[in-house]
Each structure stands twice: as structure tokens, then as C-alpha cells.
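Figure 6 in text form: structure in, sequence out.
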């Protein structure tokens, strides 16, 4: 048995064109390995291919080529075994408006063949704070309640993997906190969690590993800490008292640039130099420092760097 919850190899997806719309290459051969027990973040801008990847895993979209295994089961060769091992919370809030939350969970459990004696309907409703709405019409639930109900629905067959596709889009902060509390609890009890999000802070806070996908390609996949360790870059802006025509030789050892008439920008990392060394070099060049400010690189910058591409997203 593999140690991986999900293994994706060279997965491609080309959506066929129709009418005037041309075909669309949504996935260009992606590889992803998601270890069992991890809390994995799949990040990417709009149209990057996150939902396509998840929908292929869910069996809602057919892949064009490549392989995907869920808990060791190939999604094409053993679709049923693959499916019982994964619960997917879709991005869209799709509901049968006339079912109550309790009925919805019961129907879903029935679809997965969970015997009545093993159903966890009440437990799940309580876990997502919807027990008091168990018998209300689903259409009367708020957006946040619907999203929580979808999480409960994805968990009826107690899958070892839970995938959440943009779970907090349009969800207020209080609810987001509650959602994550529950997701953390599931994770602590051994569920492998995969979530897609636009929110970097969310992935940073929750996920042990982050993959960034852009234009159908994985541009980075590494432990969150490693990704964050790239954030040791800092830009120092130094304003000097006189105009700087050319870069003084004292600054040639640094990654320095002239910005405007009397401004210098120096990019430093922890290893490369200290702020003190930079300032000393500026003074050694005979420049009079009148002001100084710094810009820290954050995860947002790394994300932008990694997803910056001349290709225009369709
Ligand atoms: N059914 C479809 N037919 C044609 N093209 C599609 C279809 N579904 C998605 N696409 C295209 O495939 C690309 C990837 O879309 P996908 O929905 O997977 O991206 P995403 O990363 O989930 O974006 P978002 O965050 O906006 O949901 C996009 O260019 C999208 O327009």
C-alpha cells in the first residue's frame, strides 16, 4: 500500500471547443503527490486548473491523459474504490432545495451504501453546527450553512480524504474560523485534507504543503515552511541628500539600483548582507542619508513571482 493519499502523474485535460469557442488546454501534464495525513493546499489564480483537477478526482470531468490514484486506486481502472476514499466539497452550492439537511445526508449515505446502523447523520449535523436546522428546508439555509452542509455531505461515507474546493469564497470571517476549526479537527483525527484557495494566508496558516498551479502547470510544490523561508528578501529604499548619477563603486557588491534622482533601492537577503552593511557602504560612497524605508517580501510576492507569465489567461 502506498503512503500517498493522492498521486497524480502527467495529468492533462483538453476541453473540446464548441461553436466558435476553441478547445482549451486546462491541464498540461501535472504531477502531484499528496501524502496520507497531510493538510495540502492547492493554490492558483482564476482559471489555473484547480477545479479541473478536483473534478477529475471526483469523477465529474474525464481526464484527457495521464493517471490519478486515490488511496492507491486508479480512478479509471477502479473508479468505485477510488470514489469511496474521497469526499469532495464542491465550489458551487448545488442543492435540492426541497430536501432537509437530514434527508440530504441520509440520501447521500444511501448512495454510498452506508448501512443505516452505521450512519452518522446526527453526529455530522452537530459537527457542522446544523443540528438545529436538521429538518428545515435546505433552501432556507444561509450561504454559510449550505457550505457547512456540503462538508457534512462529503463526509457521510467517512472517507480518509476530504477535498474542499474554495470553501471560504463568500464566507464571513466568523464562519470561516468555525469551518477551519472543524477541518482541523478532522485532520487531527487522521483525515487527509486538500483545499484549494485564492487566499494565501489561509493556505499559509492551515497547510503543511503548498502547491501552486498556473496555466495548467504546477509551478511549485513544497513544504509551507520551505516556501516561507524564501521570504527572507528585503528591499531597502535609501533617500540621499544629493542626486545620484551613477551607482557608486562602493555599492557594486550589492544588488542595488538607482530609483529616481536621489533614491537607491538595495535588495538584500539574510545571507547576502545586513542593513548596517548597506548603510555603511552608502556612507562610504560619500552620500548623505536623509531617509530610509524597507519593503518585506511576503507570500503574496512569491505567489505573484511564481504565477507571473507572459501568457494571457483565457
Ligand atoms: N467545461 C469547460 N469547458 C471549456 N473550458 C473549461 C471548462 N471548465 C473549465 N474550463 C477552462 O479551463 C481552465 C481551467 O479552469 P478551472 O475551473 O479548472 O480553473 P480554476 O483554477 O479552478 O479557477 P477558479 O479559481 O476560477 O475556479 C480555464 O481556462 C477555464 O476557462
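Output sequence:
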Amino acid at each position: 500500500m502506498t503512503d500517498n493519499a493522492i498521486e497524480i502523474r502527467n495529468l492533462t485535460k483538453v476541453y473540446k471547443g464548441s461553436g466558435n469557442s476553441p478547445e482549451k488546454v486546462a491541464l498540461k501534464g501535472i504531477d502531484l503527490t499528496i501524502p496520507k495525513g497531510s493538510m495540502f493546499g492547492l493554490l492558483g489564480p482564476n482559471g489555473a486548473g484547480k477545479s479541473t483537477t478536483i473534478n477529475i478526482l471526483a469523477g465529474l470531468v474525464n481526464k484527457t491523459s495521464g493517471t490519478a490514484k486515490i488511496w492507491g486506486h486508479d480512478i479509471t481502472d477502479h473508479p468505485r474504490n477510488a470514489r469511496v476514499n474521497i469526499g469532495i466539497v464542491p465550489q458551487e452550492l448545488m442543492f435540492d432545495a426541497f430536501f432537509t439537511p437530514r434527508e440530504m445526508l441520509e440520501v447521500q449515505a444511501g448512495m454510498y451504501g452506508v448501512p443505516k446502523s452505521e450512519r452518522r447523520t446526527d453526529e455530522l449535523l452537530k459537527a457542522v453546527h446544523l443540528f438545529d436546522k436538521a429538518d428545515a428546508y435546505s433552501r432556507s439555509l444561509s450561504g454559510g450553512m449550505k457550505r457547512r452542509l456540503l462538508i457534512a455531505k462529503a463526509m457521510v461515507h467517512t472517507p480518509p480524504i476530504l477535498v474542499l474546493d474554495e470553501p471560504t469564497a463568500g464566507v464571513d470571517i466568523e464562519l470561516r474560523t468555525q469551518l477551519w476549526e472543524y477541518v482541523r479537527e478532522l485532520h487531527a483525527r487522521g483525515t487527509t485534507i486538500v483545499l484549494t484557495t485564492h487566499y494565501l494566508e489561509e493556505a499559509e496558516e492551515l497547510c503543511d504543503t503548498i502547491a501552486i498551479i498556473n496555466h495548467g502547470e504546477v509551478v511549485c510544490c513544497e513544504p509551507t515552511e520551505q516556501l516561507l523561508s524564501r521570504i527572507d528578501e528585503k528591499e531597502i529604499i535609501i533617500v540621499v541628500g544629493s542626486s545620484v548619477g551613477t551607482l557608486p563603486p562602493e555599492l557594486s557588491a550589492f544588488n542595488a539600483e538607482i530609483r529616481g534622482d536621489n533614491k537607491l533601492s538595495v535588495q538584500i537577503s539574510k545571507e547576502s548582507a545586513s542593513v548596517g552593511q548597506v548603510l555603511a557602504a552608502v556612507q562610504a560612497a560619500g552620500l548623505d542619508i536623509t531617509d530610509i524605508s524597507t519593503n518585506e517580501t511576503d507570500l503574496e510576492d512569491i505567489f505573484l513571482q511564481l504565477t507571473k507569465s507572459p501568457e494571457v489567461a483565457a
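Caption detail: The chain has two domains: 4-229, 234-296.
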